[in-house]
Amino acid sequence: MSADAILVRFANADDFDKIPALGEDALLAHTRGAVYRAQLVIAEEGADFRGYLLFGLYKDTIPFMHKLYVAPEHRSKGYAGEIIGKWETLMREDGYRRVMLTTSSLNTAQNFYRLMGYRDIGSLTLPGEPLEMIFLKDFSKEE
Fold first, then answer.
1. Which DSSP symbol is given to 116?
2. Is residue 58 within 8 Å of 64, Cβ to Cβ?
3. CA angle (79 as vertex; 43, 18 as ends), nearest 5
4. Domain ranges across the chain
5. What is the assigned CATH class of domain 97-143?
C-alpha cells in the first residue's frame, strides 16, 4: 500500500453493498442513513474495498468517530492510519477544528490513537461494560 494509492472519500448510495453487514442490524440501518447524511467514508485501493469509517457529530459540532472497520485481509498493513488521517483531512476541509472518538479501556487501539495525536479527555462507565475512554484531537494544537 502506498499513501497515494488509497482513496478515502465520502460514501454514496452505490457503496452500501460494499459495507460488511457484520450481523449487526442496528448498525446496518444506521450505516445506510449515514451514507445519505454524508457521515460515512469509504477506503478503496484501485477499485478494491479496504474499509470504512462511520462518524456522527457530538453536540452537533464535533465529528465523532463511531466505527472504524478495515477488512480482515487488509489489517496490520497501515490502512487504519490512512483512513483516519484522510478522514481528519476531510473534516479540516469542512471547517472542523476538533475530532473525537471513544474506545474500550480493554482495546489496545487506545495506544494507536495516542500515537495519532489523540489525547485522553475523560471516560464513562456504562452498567456491565468496561470503562470507555474518550479521546480528542484538536487540530489547532498542531498548527
1. T
2. yes
3. 30
4. 1-54+67-93, 97-143
5. alpha beta
Task: Find out if CATH 3.60.15.10 is the number for domain 1-54+67-93.
Answer: no
Backbone CA torsion sign across 76, 77, 81, 84 = negative
Instruction: Please calculate the CA angle 125-76-33 and round it to the nearest 5 degrees.
Output: 55
Grid cell 476538533 — which residue?
98
Q: Give the tens place of pLDDT for each residue, 60-104.
A: 899 999 889 998 999 999 999 999 999 999 999 999 999 999 999
Provide the β-strand partners of residue 44: 7, 49
Of the candidates 117, 39, 116, which has an alpha carbon nearest to the alpha carbon of residue 80? 116
pTM of the model: 0.77
Element (H, E) at 70: strand 62-70
